[in-house]
């Protein structure tokens, strides 16, 4: 064995011009234990809530035929704009699913005769979007959805909202740290009619202006509702072209969401009441309010906000958006704003794309990675104390190749007691093995040398305690002499000792 190999180092290799560069594709990320465990915790907690509400899990394949994706399918020879698509051997285009709703619509249409109606399902899994990546914007991420297909009742919307509130709190958000804001597409349509807006392009301009209310404020939106707005860079955005009177009516609508749900409904009725569609939207919100009150969801957790504009070409009735209220900071301690952490609404036209018959549906979706990042920024990381803490296994130190059977037997004994454990299988010495265990965030290292074997004992080093004390050490010599957290105990006492270390951590 070479000296380099004996030292545990990898020998240098000649540069091969044909060797590919190790790199992650743009828009994709690798996730280690901390992120994986955080997302697993969220999914486990939220799944439990959804199942208690009577929603069944459903898994669909990663690929759908491209024409099933509806509005995400561009008019192009190769449908890969917005989605990742490939052509099957039968020359049909398939695409990685863009979200979890389009597969649900296809599944419901395909199996409608055999499904219980309404059909209540939840699903989670990765989705893929062939879009330009950016900060916090990835091409692959995990979503979690819950939907009811086959009920037109506003109470179905209310149930989804109340369940979403419970799901977010189960995931780690304290009660009152997030609020679900609710609007209705029919109110907005009634507003358009009252404001005399009939042109589709003008409607879109109004909606885009309202969607910028949080960022630009009432004055900025007023400009966008009228002739247009010149921003700080000198760029001009053309407005929706409303009259001053109509623009004020729109702003009065967006400002109606102050106070309780009943108070907001009364204010909205003054603005959009009188139009058939507006009155229908008001009646639906009133039914949602009554159901939420019966479910114990007050305005501190779900309120009416007419300023919510959410993919309105997609939704047909109620729309809702979950907003994080917690104070959040990034890894540098700088304040950050997460804003929306999920949303949904009623979409009654998706299944009809396959069947030709309108099928009512409503649902809520959130990005799992985004929620995990929000929890971390709020200091509620899943990698904390408790059963979901990110921790490595107990490491059994390997002293002697001839004693590997003893080490494996010891690791098996620890695992049989329900404690994760591994034998160090590298080629380094004691110091490096301890460093390895520390990098794994192992709670403890177990030493089984000749003396311990002869005496029927083991030496346990409490690495959790060692890490805590190391942050306070002032005398390295005293540290080495005291060997804090290290004890030699009878073999029969090993498992109780490890459990004490785990419980203390």
From TrEMBL:
The keyword Cytoplasm applies. GO terms for molecular function: ATP binding; histidine-tRNA ligase activity. It is found in: Cytoplasm. It comes from the Bacteria. It is an enzyme of class 6 (ligase). InterPro entries: aa-tRNA-synth_II, aa-tRNA-synth_II/BPL/LPL, Anticodon-bd, Anticodon-bd_dom_sf, His-tRNA-ligase, HisRS-like_core, HisRS/HisZ, HisRS_anticodon. It catalyses: tRNA(His) + L-histidine + ATP = L-histidyl-tRNA(His) + AMP + diphosphate + H(+). GO terms for biological process: histidyl-tRNA aminoacylation. NCBIfam families: hisS. Homodimer. This is Histidine--tRNA ligase. It comes from Phenylobacterium zucineum (strain HLK1). The gene is hisS.
